[in-house]
Amino acid sequence: MWSAGRGVAAGAALLGLLLGLLAPGSGATKSGAGLVTCGSVLKLFNTQHRVRLHSHDIKYGSGSGQQSVTGVEASDDANSYWRIRGDSKGGCPRGSPVRCGQAVRLTHVLTGKNLHTHHFPSPLSNNQEVSAFGEDGEGDDLDLWMVRCSGQHWERQAAVRFQHMGTSVFLSVTGEQYGSPIRGQLEVHGMPSANTHNTWKAMEGIFIKPSVDPSAGHDEL
Amino acid sequence: MSGAAIGSHLPRASLSRGLGTPGKLTGRGGGQASCRSGPSRRPLREAASQGWVGWGADAAAADAVRSVWGKGRHRGWHSETMAPQNLSTFCLLLLYFIGAVIAGRDFYKILGVPRSASIKDIKKAYRKLALQLHPDRNPDDPRAQEKFQDLGAAYEVLSDSEKRKQYDAYGEEGLKDGHQSSHGDIFSHFFGDFGFMFGGTPRQQDRNIPRGSDIIVDLEVTLEEVYAGNFVEVVRNKPVARQAPGKRKCNCRQEMRTTQLGPGRFQMTQEVVCDECPNVKLVNEERTLEVEIEPGVRDGMEYPFIGEGEPHVDGEPGDLRFRIKVVKHPIFERRGDDLYTNVTISLVESLVGFDMDVTHLDGHKVHISRDKITRPGAKLWKKGEGLPNFDNNNIKGSLIITFDVDFPKEQLTEEAREGEGYSVCMWCVCVCVCVCVCVCV
């Protein structure tokens, strides 16, 4: 009896192992079609509060007075599109998948400002203010965010976190709502700890398929 | 062409047009024997009923037969009326006909690409032809729809490496599955959902129908891609308005309502009044788009995909536009259609001349040689080695090479001074000797 049980358990384990080996294998044959790459434009969805990262041409009335960043419920707002770019040294050519732990900049498509945070208090919850800063995609070193995810690369279906390179806070939403003129939008701020409030998922967007671009970085010349 | 081998007395042009290369018949030659042992002789009806051959191939084959027969030698299908030599002719013709039907369409010919074409060439050819052959563009052509279908089928097979291998080996017959995606799908990969609204006509009733927002995506492009062209595959995940059960409020507006409070006393109040519309909900859908980077494309040029922007629940979706941004290249600088680059030569080379290759953007070598003195800052113009012109790819700009001379960094020692002069002299002598030898030999 005992040996039969062991046999069943071993069989189940073997089956599980086989499936485990097969699953990433089949994922690999899809050649990483579900990866987020540099140059892609997307909307980020906070899984806990179900809002999308958003910005617009409205400035904070307090703190730094820079352009505000909020969370909105609507899925068809073009002001929720952000572009994933590498750091200013050009280390992320078009089509290269974003690695977990890589520092990226998120540029707001319609206003050209980068997602940014600094030592200012946020207006509603007194956490760290997150703003949109820069001109035409160029800001400063406080625009860099590290993509925190499990695995090798940022996958589209995965829930990831964004940790600020300069101040180590996580991009979060905790549910505080603004009043007029942006009634119904939620506050987005930086929090020091990783928790359920700071997981984000890539939703709608224009995703450039991963490419092994030989022309980028031809060092043999 | 196997057509020539089998029926050279038959008008070849009409046979070969639209039927493509009947691969099965190559090498079999003529003769009665092939009639019996030829490729799987299926009756016409069976061949026609296979979904993938479709009515297109059938019609094309029927066309061919009609055109041959119509050349004044009309013969019925009844064998008892034929003489023996005509029987063999008929047999061969039937065989050819069946083979052609079975072999199906020549996808390479439909796309106008050689058999060795790369996937990029195939996409480029499809995109160009799709714009030309779209039925909306050719309302007077009765075969426009058919040609367009053929084009879609050709692209679907040749753009998939698996299907292309099967097609190359076995012809259209050898394809395992039928055509999966409808041609509309393939077309929208290149032009967007409403891509059929091309042709320069701006969308009517722009003001009346509310429109979703446009999205402009900067697409970074390298100079290599500007030189040779490329296709960028992109997955578009967008919310799409779909029917949902129930009704919703739409077209809400403020209206003034007058209410009577008493005899002769009225009050005007503002009220929000809405209509009732069928309920819609936004569902995320995905599709692949192909953005073509045309050779010679300039910074700031846009590639629109109609209808792929943000949706509007009460109206039409906006557009998605890719704006080209050419990134700086480490070696070449672009000015218009011309390319500028710097090459450093040694002091010796600047005095006695040199022979070198510059590697171009697509890897081909540009040979430059000089036998005169080259001053620092001298420029060499190589016509035709620049970038292709966007409007006419056959015209290329020039490659301008500016020479920089690598002067020695430190002062020359006495020995080096002697040595330098000596080595230059020796080099000259060697060069002269070599040249003489080569000339004599």
Automatic annotation (TrEMBL), chain A:
The entry's keywords: Repeat, Signal
InterPro entries: MIR_dom_sf, MIR_motif
PROSITE patterns: MIR
Cell compartment(s), UniProt: Secreted
Gene Ontology MF terms in the entry: misfolded protein binding
Primary localisation category: secreted
Ranges of residues in domain MIR: 33-87, 95-150, 151-205
GO cellular component: endoplasmic reticulum chaperone complex; extracellular region; protein folding chaperone complex
One record GO biological process: protein refolding
UniProt-recorded name of the protein: Stromal cell derived factor 2 like 1
Organism: Rhinolophus ferrumequinum
Name of the gene: SDF2L1
Automatic annotation (TrEMBL), chain B:
Family matches, as PROSITE patterns: DNAJ_1 (PS00636), DNAJ_2 (PS50076)
Key words of the record: Glycoprotein, Signal
A Pfam family of this chain: DnaJ
InterPro entries on file: DnaJ-B11-like (IPR051736), DnaJ_C (IPR002939), DnaJ_domain (IPR001623), DnaJ_domain_CS (IPR018253), HSP40/DnaJ_pept-bd (IPR008971), J_dom_sf (IPR036869)
Residue ranges of domain J in the record: 106-171
Matches recorded under Gene3D superfamilies: DnaJ domain, Urease metallochaperone UreE, N-terminal domain
Glycoprotein listed as a keyword: yes
Ribosomal protein keyword on record: no
Lineage top rank: taxon: Eukaryota
Gene Ontology terms, MF aspect: misfolded protein binding; signaling receptor binding; unfolded protein binding
Cell compartments where the protein resides: Endoplasmic reticulum lumen
SUPFAM superfamilies per UniProt: Chaperone J-domain, HSP40/DnaJ peptide-binding domain
Broad class of where this protein is predominantly found: endoplasmic reticulum
Parts forming coiled coils: none
Location of the region described as Disordered in the Swiss-Prot/TrEMBL record: 1-43
A biological process from GO: negative regulation of neurogenesis
Single GO cellular component term: extracellular space
Its job: As a co-chaperone for HSPA5 it is required for proper folding, trafficking or degradation of proteins. Binds directly to both unfolded proteins that are substrates for ERAD and nascent unfolded peptide chains, but dissociates from the HSPA5-unfolded protein complex before folding is completed. May help recruiting HSPA5 and other chaperones to the substrate. Stimulates HSPA5 ATPase activity. It is necessary for maturation and correct trafficking of PKD1.
Annotated protein name in UniProt: DnaJ homolog subfamily B member 11
Organism of this sequence: Rhinolophus ferrumequinum
Lineage of the organism: Eukaryota, Metazoa, Chordata, Craniata, Vertebrata
